[in-house]
Fold this protein.
Amino acid sequence: MNLFLDAFGWLFAPEQWTGADSIPERIGQHLFFTVIAFVIASIIAIPLGYLIGHTGKGREVAVAISGAARALPSFGLILLLVILVGVLQIGPSVTAALVILAIPSILAGAYAGLESVDRRTIDAARSVGMTEWQILTKVEIPLGLPLLISGLRSGLLQIVATATLAAYVGLGGLGFDILQGIQTRNYPQTLGGAIVVVVLALLLDALFGLLEHFAVPKGVRGARGGRIASEAKAPIEAQKAGGVAQGVSAAGR
Amino acid sequence: MSIEFRSVSKRFDDGTLAVENFELTIPSRSITVLVGSSGCGKTTLLRMVNRMVDPTSGSILIDGDDIANRPPVALRRSIGYVMQNSGLLPHRKVVDNVATVPRLNGVSKSESRARALELLDTVGLDRSLADRYPNQLSGGQQQRVGVARGLAADPNILLMDEPFGAVDPIVRTELQRETLRLQRDLDKTVVFVTHDIDEAFLLGDQVVILQKGGIIAQKGTPAEILAAPANDFVAEFVGADRGKRALHVVSVDGRDVLVDSDGRPAGRLVPAPDKAEALTASGAPAAQGERAS
């Protein structure tokens, strides 16, 4: 309990909140990596997921690759990429690792969203004369949006948690305090840093939870659409819970 | 707007032969019902008309033009389509669902909305339902919206794929009556698919009874089919020799009463000089005598 009190003591000390290496600056660095990786991962994974979901082709391959990518140890991946790409390209290497880790969740959200749409609804849309593009943009995407956002949500959490590891290769971020705390045996600092990561992750999670709620099309809210959606969501939720735990525990190693 | 099937065959990718050498002419401005048990190819035939399914061989002509030359999307927008479970877009309001096709065709939002509201009147729905979502409507109301959507672009051809299969019997009877009323007013070429022979006889000007593989067991007006079933399959399918279709005359107090095979009175025999002719011409269902009490 003392450790927690000390951690909060460290956390709320005025010197952590102003100047160089302060918590706001660390949060800024952390979010910088997070946002860049998140945007790149989304640009890659959403169109690909939609292609798979709309055509129904390549699903097995996507599931297999996503599954394998989820099993990747994040710390190992970052170190591997830094070594492969070169020590001079640390920023891009870390970003690439974060992108790779986030893609499976976002990809799954995108194609699961499209797959959750009732086949009869799509058949009807085609029967009345919608083009494939119109079916995608006017039917599949709006109806699949909640699951996509759910996927984005877990992908983002994965990145936020894993970005902690950027400190290991000298890129700062919230991992810096965790790491420095371990090295100098200043465990309140380690715990304080971890708490900030957790709070940041929870805030982002809440934000996306809200988005997810509002993304459910009006006519679908209620019992009927909800059942299908929550079934398809289960694997993404499981992934999400695992993601944070994995990232935080990896940071604590 | 006649529709002509010329030796149409369809083999699906899995090897099933859905229909083989199917020949049929569907006359314009009347209701043709394709009726048969599941697996007889009736839905496949219907979906070939708007190119949701393309035939493996043979051709389908609308007013003499082969539809294989028409782009599927444009063709579908020119043909009304009503399906089971309404097929409405769950995230769009009733009025927007009805306006779907005009909107796709580039009609302005206000104009398609006005047209959609008129169509709600046409299919007997209150305009107050316009801003509801499909899942806030009953099954019967959803089917009406489905019909309104099918009519929205004012198509000459209306395809109906078991549209009343999923609603309860009372609502179904009501919707069938409405369909007949609509057809009297709108005069479309309607192709209607069902597995219910009573529905087929009630709605069809021409009834086509299908056997497995899209083989036509018999076609004709309901009266013709009832009067002379082509073979045992048809007789069995329409139940010509039993139940309420097998009527005989019993004299009660000097009056002729029609009694079905279970001995229940079905109606009274009354002189109807013009009816016999009307039956073969318009295909009104046979034996619709006054109900005896």
The first helix of chain B runs from residue 42 to 49. The CA atoms of residues 15 and 79 of chain B lie 29 Å apart. The interface with chain A takes residues 47, 50, 52, 73-78, 81, 83, 85-93, 100-101, 104, 133-136, 149 of chain B (CB under 8 Å).
